[in-house]
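Database export, one record per block. Field names are fixed; values are copied verbatim from the stored entry.
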Amino acid sequence: MNDRVNDKYAEGSQTQGGGTDTTVGDGKKWRWPTAFRNAILQRWNALTLERQFLLTAALAVGLSMAALGYWVESRIRSGWIQGMAETGALYLEGFLAPHVQGLDASNRLPEESREKIRGLLVDTSLGRHVAIIKLWDLNGNLIFSTGRAESHGKMSEGDIKRIVAGNVVVDTDLDDDRDELRAMKLKPKLIEIYAPIYREKTRDIIAIGEFYEFSHFMNREISSVRYATWFLIANVAIVIVILLHVIVKRASRIISSQQALLEQNLARAEALAKRNNALRRAADRARLNATVLNETYLASIGADIHDGPIQLLSLMMLKLPSAADRAGGTVAPAAHAHGELEPLIQQVLSDLRNLSSGLALPEAENLSLAETIHLAITRHEQQTGTHVVRNIAELPPQVPVAIRFCSYRVVQEALTNAYKHAGGRGQKVEARIGDDMLEICVSDSGSTLPMHHRDTALGSGGLGVRGMDSRIKALRGQLTVSRLPSGGTEVRATLPMRS
């Protein structure tokens, strides 16, 4: 039976967290302190800020008022006890002093005085307030007592010093006198008061008087004061909590309205941010499309030049002798005119073909970035008969068309300037990728730019340099043209690959 009970139910095992694990049935465990704390926190977090503050303020004000109430009550009680003790001491001294004046040197009280003191407590108003009267000498020894105790101890030295100094000592702890009170059938709800008794017409203390005063009257007064005090404190606490609640409720409404306004502004800002982002992407797409359309337009112009003026000039050159023959009637003048016009027509055809081939980029559409740069270098070498040093690093194969077209034009224009101004000496093309940026550097070893154009090449350059700068800025890139310390010019273009 015990084994089955132990297997079925085991309780009280201590866990590392200090909580108690309870194992029931199949071994499931609950940590009661943790579950209780989580439940309290869950309910607390579900409350509004206004109610959280109201509960917190009520708890804080309640505890503060409770502490204040207990302190005020204790001060009132001690004040009442001390005041009543001093009043009772003066009142009792008026009754005892005449009967104590007969103390002799041996501190013995005459029997007549003893009987008179006992008579003070029999069927008198004093007897309704005082239960026992005792007399002590200045050494703390008992002289006389109306009680029934068989033995009495001595007074403490501290109490004697305070009484001899003229103070009234009050003691509410009657554990030492419990047997005496039980013998007299008195309840221990008494106040023990010690007071000095003076010799008549002097301030000399001849004895110490002790009396046990009933505390029911004082308890009634203290209870009434206690109830009034707690009623006042409770009302003040309620008023404070209500005022705090009103203030916090108003502040909570203001906070809620401000929060709603902030949420609206945040939603509006998010919408504007999304719209601006969409507009930025649309602008980027339009910019890239404009670059592609520009290249397409240039290719169309090149095709029109090739198919139009070039074809007409070629046909005119072929038909020139027949036209001259029809105009003059002789072949010799026509042949002479053909001989003079043919070089000019050939020059025009060559220039138009070069212009047409420079405008159109039919091969670059299906090439990679590295192949596009190599194509620009190869065409330049074929057209100028010069050599270009190539240092092309590994480049990504998939690059937007606009970047490939821009790279081609930058290399083409920079090499053309190097050939035009430096005679093609020391031509070099470098290309690499760094930090998601494409960097193209074209340099030569000739004196391409004057010294005063070293830092102002872009501002004072010709149409080709300004065209390169416009193309690169359209793709959010940067172009710099600088004079090398060893002579020559360097054109450096930087393009973001994310364009």
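Remark 1: The chain is about 60% helix and 15% strand.
Remark 2: Confidence is low (pLDDT under 50) at residues 1-30, 450-460.
End of record.
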